[in-house]
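Changelog entry: the MFS transporter record was regenerated in this release. Current contents:
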Amino acid sequence: MPPLPPVKASDSRAARLVLLVTAIGLISLNLRPALTSPGPLLSEIMREFGIDTALAGGVTGISLICLGVFGAAAPRLARRFGPERVILALLVVLAAGIALRGTGSFGALIGGMILAGLGIGVIQVLLPGIVKRDFARHAGTMTGLYTMNLCLGAAIGAGLAIPLEQTLGSWRLSLAAWALPALAAAIIWLPQAFVRQSPAPRAARPGRLWRDPLAWAVTCFMGLQSCLAYMMIGLMPLILEQRGDDSARAGLITAIAIAPQALTALAVPHFAARMRNQSAVAIVSIAVSAIGFLGLLFAPPSTALLFAVIEGLGLGATIGIAILFIVLRAPDSHVATDLSGMSQSVGYIIAALGPIVAGLLRDAGGNWVLPAAFFLAVASLNAVAGWYAGRDAHVLQDPES
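Regenerated structure tokens:
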């Protein structure tokens, strides 16, 4: 039998990159179902535990706070243990948190959301740095694929919440079921953690980064667009139910609103990365989101599906641009990891306020007028941040700053 041809180094690298792309895709699919699956079930959770709209918004809000708090530690963990191993460990934590939500009490639900927030917060800080490191020449395409899967995961989490409840027999099991795909992602990621280890990323002078105006613009854009997104994800089912839909239809429309995000999350970063300045793209994306949200609140209920799709297209574009800003505004992968940590840690603390404040305003006013005004105020500030963050420049560009 003739000997097998030798494996070329280029073939080995291509195979490794295919496995890496597959693993990043599966991980990103698992970073949102834990956050979006409670939304369609909030009415039942509120009835069972006797909580109001503001506290129900806090079910999602507590995870977002954890995304911010724990995400800040991600760069230090990566420098000590390597980003690949940290991601593996936190995928296991994410699966454990998701499973805990199905064990019974309101305390277990909140505890599970905290653990899920810990896992998601650290993982999503580290992935943009890996994209910058391994796919620098295709940053727009990889950012688009990553954010597309984030949006698909969010849509799947919201869309299957009610069907899973009906199939499994309880909302608790519906929430806990998402532990299985998180474990599958950990298994696919194993070769990255133990076969290949990247050098520990060096610090990017975090003190300077936190004094950089462009870094703060990227951070504010990330936080404010997430605030808008989680107001929609967390409260849309309640909005639709209070406007006459049943829980199943409300969950379906919420999923439909999230699904179009995948289209713009894929296309917009790929398109915007080819431009010298992304400011206009960011502002148009925010405007589309605002039109969709206002239509859901005040247009005739028969048009809910149309405005859900409009809002989804806008929000998909904004999350894609937010992640792209991290990749493009950083001069290298090490700075990208630290900028990702800063923007997502502060950003998701800002985002956590969205569903909580909107719920408080809804309870205070008795309708959705005050939450709509709050949404528009956040969108306006987001547009200002997007205009500045879209400039063709790098953070830490001036060595004397």
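The chain has one domain: 18-389.
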